[in-house]
Amino acid sequence: MINDVKLVKRNLRKDRIFVGIISVFSLLCVVPLIVILYFIFVNGASSINWNLFTHDGGIGEEGAGILHAIIGTTEITLLASLIAIPVGILAGVWMAENTRGKFSGFARIVVDVMQGVPSVVLGMVVSIWIVKPFQSFSAFSGSVALAIMMLPVVIKNTEETLKLVPGSIKEAAYALGLPYHRIILKIVLPCGLSGILTGVLVAVARIAGETAPLIFTAFGANYVNLNIFKPMETIPGIIYKSYTFYGEGASVAWGASFVLVIFVLTINLIAKVVINRWKVKF
Amino acid sequence: MLKKLAIAILALFSASALFAGSVELIGAGATFPYPLYNKMFSTYKKDKGTVVNYQAIGSGGGIQSLISKTVDFAGSDAPMNDKEAKSAKADVVHVPTCLGAVVLSYNLPGNPKLKLNADIVAGIYLGKIVKWNDPAIVAENAGITLPDLPIVVVRRADSSGTTYTFTDYLSAVSAEWKAKIGVNKSPNWPGTTMGGKGNPGVAGYVKKTPGAIGYVEIAYAKQNNMVWASLKNSSGNYFDADLASIAAAADVDLPADTKVSLVDTKSPNGYPICTFTWILLYKEQAYGGHPQNRAQETVKLLWWMTHEGQAINETLDYGKLPPKALAIVENQIKSVVYNGQPIQK
Amino acid sequence: MASPSRNNEMQLKTESSRKATLHVLFFERSFRKLLFAMVIFMILLIGAMLITLVVFSIPSITKFGFSFLTGTTWDPANDQFGAFSFVVGTLMTSILSLAFSIPFSMSVAIFLGEYFTSGTLSSVLNSALELLAGIPSIIYGIVGFFILNPFLIQLLKVFHIQYAGVGIFSAAFLLAIMIIPYSASIAREVIQLVPNDLKEAAYSLGATRYEVVTKIMIPYSMSGIFAGILLSFGRALGETMAVTMVVGNSSQLNWSVFGLGDTIASRIANEFGEAFGLHLSVLVEIGLLLMIITVFFGVLGRWIIQKTSVRD
Q: Which chain C residues are Cβ-neighbours of B57 within 8 angstroms?
């Protein structure tokens, strides 16, 4: 009897220790996030001034700002999204509609392969495709690289969201005599809009922070440039160039990091709100 | 609604391509003169209105971009070597723009000002001298307590003209270095060494790593408030790098193609690791669709940099082009042609 | 009997409605073809990418063959290339990052999958993980360079280890933090899929929660957990910016965790801009190699997940 009690007590203790350990490790995971956000905010906030947002200029130059980087990131990300979103959503629709068969399995593997391509290898390939033949670094080539990065995320996300749309809705639409393209564009896609939009937003946030593919494609610029066929500066690019630079360099890097982190946080927040407000419940 | 948005965005992008009105020059290359070029180009933009986009990716990157014809001009502290010249398939003109010095900067407690001779520097980079309190270093620095700290050697991770100049110096002062490694923009560094990206990268690593030593252009060491060593030159005296010792080292006759090495100078008052830095461009500017107005703007820029622009050099601790070099430099610029016609008369 | 005019009317109506139907059919068919075309486009894109990588690797492959992967001399100046040190660096940083991250990601997975599946603590932790995954690599790099490295120098001094502040250790540390969200989220999902009757059967036999988790749930979800680990490994392998800013970029072969090193991705980022000829081909080759390894782990991981979810 006494042995049983001892055993039970020991087991209960093990149980409590286990929960304790699990909890400690889990909560420790939050620590890096807090550290990163803290230092970005503290160092970044002290670098934020009106000058940063209204000036461009070379690295280390007095009075230089990140205006050209902000405009550059916006343009390159926008262009990449314009390329990737339509292609991705349409391909995702096809994936959701065709779940059986060897070809569909093959297509799925191809999407997985695309997702696995390292960003720097992608930069190399696009540099070989576009920069070298046209003998010009360009924001356009950077956008192409980023678009290829976005594509698998958008495809997978669209596919998964649309799979959740009940078949009954589609069948009802068919029964009413609607043609296929109407069913997809006006019924199914709107149903999955919140999920698809979330995926798109997350993909945009991800490529806005990418540096490696842009080093050999968009290259960089010291001045505001709107022309997509010329080199353009980006926020991650300017961080990479200025973080070891003396004087204002590091401060510009922290300021730009601050802007980038705020941007990523905002997109994540919007994505959460979008999910909650626009989600169609079945 | 979506369609209208898409059309609007496409219109914006196409319109942006029409901004191709004004000429913007693009250059890439050395980080060595970057602080100077930055100032020069922003002044040039204010005075003449032409935008120059110079990206400091290292001399090797600059030369490569010039070979790929993705830039109008390249910046390099190392003249093109045979392999690169062959790859370029056309003559490349080298135009010197300023003088600079490569200093050995380090991270030690108390920031002492050290004296290093050629054997010590070569020994450190050959991996033979591994601690700061090595007898060789102590011998040259009586009165300074050197800690028992391992030396962390920092060099360039990218292909660099600054490295070229530094290895040029090492080859001149150390037969062992010359035999084993030689002069190169990206040599096969012996031992385990830390690679920084660009002059800023090396400076950054040295600043953050206790016991580190690295070679950087003096402007970077100065602006980073770092301390650097005075070096013993070939006449046996210790010199710090400053405008006087740089000018003394540059007091040589320039060959017609301007490719000259200034390291291990025989000048008694010269700092031993100085170098010119060059702007490289194709002699025949009418290559692969390169428009004439870009060629003209590039040559105009070079003329300005080597004349009016020289007023900026010394304010940033770069040496001016020596007076006796000016005629040769002008000849180089005048030799640049478009379809056989010289651009600068 | 319909009047002639009414007949015409009806004929006209059938005409126009037939035209309309043909119109609609045309759009419908084009739309279906468009969807398919997008998929074909995507496949051709990957194909083109692979072909480009292989074609540009050929000069390197023909010159060096297999010895390229075992050689340790990286000398662009003399066209001597041996990528072994980068392969070692890549594997060391990634495997070490897995070792660092697994205790944390497993704990989070169990915490969120079994103990706290809902509620404010759960959503806060979930959001924290999502944010960690969303923070760009360059931010990890800059915080790593300015904050983590000095911290690690001091931390390792306590253990009498002389650390230069940059090296394999810093890179592995950063990578570990970056990949925790990936393996954690997949592990959490599979843990939540463990059927309730299995758990209840164990409880009815007198098992403690700890025993149920460790002896029932984890073995049951092992393939899913393993897949998550493979996926995060694939992610760590291809990571570029955060690594290149803290790893030290050394070309020398180094087996020490506290020494300087370099990875394939970091080396490509540093040297591609200045490479031409054989050097470029060499970089493309190691890039292709990296891609094959990364893709392999990614596809394998996803395949395992698919299989296990189909099972249920």
A: 273-274
Domain C83-308: give its CATH architecture: Orthogonal Bundle (1.10)
Q: Chain B contacts of A247, Cβ < 8 Å? A: 223
Residue A216 at interface with chain B, using a CB cutoff of 8 Å = no
Looking at the structure, tell me whether residues A180 and A60 fall in a common domain: yes
CA B218, CA A24: separation in Å to the nearest integer?
Answer: 50
ipTM of the complex as predicted: 0.93
Q: Which of B40, B109, B28, B3 is nearest to B314 (CA)?
A: B40
pLDDT tens column, C75-88: 888 888 999 999 99
Across the interface, do A29 and C299 touch by the CB < 8 Å criterion?
no
Per-residue pLDDT reduced to its tens digit, A94-140? 999 898 899 999 999 999 999 999 999 999 999 999 999 999 999 99
Q: What amino acid is encoded at A208 in this protein?
A: A
State the best of B57, B209, B213 to mutate against chain C, taking most chain C CBs within 10 Å.
Answer: B209
* Interface residue of A227, A233, A241, A252 to substitute, partner B, most B CBs within 10 Å: A227
Q: Which residue of C has its CA nearest to A114?
A: C46
Counting one residue from A and one from C, how many pairs have CB atoms under 8 Å apart?
243
Kindly list the domain boundaries of chain C, sorted by start residue.
1-64, 83-308
Residues A54 and A41 in one domain: no
- A64 with A199, same domain? yes
d(Cα B121, Cα B230) in Å, to the nearest integer? Answer: 11
Question: Which range has highest mean pLDDT (A3-17, C66-80, C126-140, C200-214)?
Answer: C126-140
Quote the domain boundaries for residue A8: 1-45
CA–CA distance from C182 to each of A51, A196, C107, C185 (Å)?
A: 38, 20, 13, 5
pTM to 2 decimal places: 0.92
Three-state SS at C80: strand
